[in-house]
Amino acid sequence: MQDRSWWLGTALSGALVVLAGAFGAHGLEGQLEPRFAAAFETGVRYQAWHTLAMLGVLAWRASLPLVGQALVLGLWAAGMLLFSGSLYAMALSGVGGLGVITPVGGVLLIAGWLALAVSVARARPGGQSPSGNT
To answer: Which of helix, strand or coil describes residue 134?
Structure first.
């Protein structure tokens, strides 16, 4: 199976989204300062959307591999780790200083979307990438 590791990682990210969402809603209810509760919720939301986006790129890549799709997946994975991960760590530890990592993750998420746009723009009609590589 092509991209087995990406599929596995994306599936685990989806499971983590559900676990983190439930933990945030039930296990942390009333336990966090409002700003930390909001940060945790933001981390869950961004991870969920990017996990879904990764599923879309993986499905697309299975039928039409293009140059840049793997880069998109890598940027989103790193972005989720840094963005959502720093928000989770900040909320759970109560250390607001961890938020300095969050913008780096955000930049990686944005870079992933821009890489997706470039990948699509560079694709030739009929679906082949300019170099034919994936």
So the answer is: coil
Which class for 12: exposed (0-12), middle (13-18), buried (19 or more C-beta within 10 A)? Answer: exposed
> Alpha-carbon torsion 45, 51, 57, 60, what sign?
negative
- pTM of the predicted protein model: 0.90
Q: Where are the beta strands (DSSP E) in the chain?
A: none
Which amino acid belongs to residue 31? Q
The answer to whether the beta carbons of residues 84 and 40 sit under 8 Å apart is no
Helix or strand (DSSP H, E) at 76: helix 69-93
Q: Which residues of the chain have pLDDT under 70?
A: 126-134
Look up tokens 């969402």; give the residue: 21
